[in-house]
Amino acid sequence: MTYCLSINVERGLVFCSDSRTNAGMDSIGTYSKMHTFAWGGERVFVLLSAGNLATTQAVVKKMYRDVEQALVPNLITATSMSEAADYIGMISTQLQRQQASRDTANTNFEATFIFGGQMGDSPPETFMIYPQGNYIHESGEHPFLQIGETKYGKPILDRIIKRDIDLERAARCALVSMNSTIRSNVTVGPPVELLIYERDSLTEGRRLFLTEDDPFAKLISEKWNESLILALENLPKFPWEDAEAETSEFKLALLRQKHDL
Q1: How far is CA 182 from CA 30, 35, 178, 212, 228, in A?
Q2: End residue of a domain, out of 192, 212, 232
Q3: Which of 10, 95, 163, 226 has minimal Cβ neighbours within 10 Å of its Cβ?
């Protein structure tokens, strides 16, 4: 299993991914699921992958090779983000069919991708590309996308992520979402990769590689845990708790009064 997410806000894009892959308890590995393709000042793309590792690696390899060999279409010839997303979906479905035709063990070769970036003066966009090759945008109300083990990290995104949120705050929210998922599911694990892209910069942005022992990652986790405990303590009391507290305070006052006498 894996967990990847993207956030699209007014100031730019955030991408976050774990690095754990597994094919059973005896076959657990670490592979980067975040891939960048950048032509400075012209276009920047980020691809996050989930699903069959052979498929995702083959898709990324072909994307690089098509550019190197000037095969059409490729990421440079695409005239829009949606055209680039169509291109990736086409590659993915073709490779899935090829691998399935050679398979004798009923292996699932499906792969899902989050694809985002910016081309020239066009606004940044993000897409979720399904195994069938079709795709969707993020919604205006909830401007984020998730693939893989999504349920543990979604509540914080639903509550916090809006289009006008500050870019760095959105990035910290992405790390909290990832941290919650890692704590709840052993199939998702570090190192965690985080990429923060500033709108209209047309550069690769700021990229962090956070290991399990990384001081910043550990501090994020500790502060989030402390905040959750404090928030729980500050929730309103049940009516009977207040009544019991008042009774206890009254009894204590009487005991003090008797003691003074």
Answers
A1: 14, 21, 6, 11, 16
A2: 212
A3: 226
